[in-house]
Amino acid sequence: MGKSADFFDLNSGVSLSAGHDRMVVFARRESGELAHISEVDNGKACGCFCLACQEALIARQGTVREHSFAHQSGTQCQHAMDAMLHGVVYRLIERHRHFVTPALHVSASVPGPHGPITDSRMRPPVKVPIDAVALVERPPWRHPCVQADVKGHSVLIHVAVKRRTRSDKCGTLADSHQAAIEIDLSSHGPRTVGDLARLLFHADDRKTWLFNPKVEAIEAELQAALKPIAEQKWLAHHAAEEQLRLLQQQRAQTLAQEQAERQRMLAARRAADLERQAACLSAQVRLQVDANPEPTTEHLVRQPAKPAEMSPAVEYAAPTGRLWLLHSSGTDLFIKVESGLQPALDALCRCGALPMAEPGVWRISRGDWSTVSIELSNIWTTIRTVTATPAQ
Question: Is 47 contained in some domain?
Answer without folding.
Answer: yes
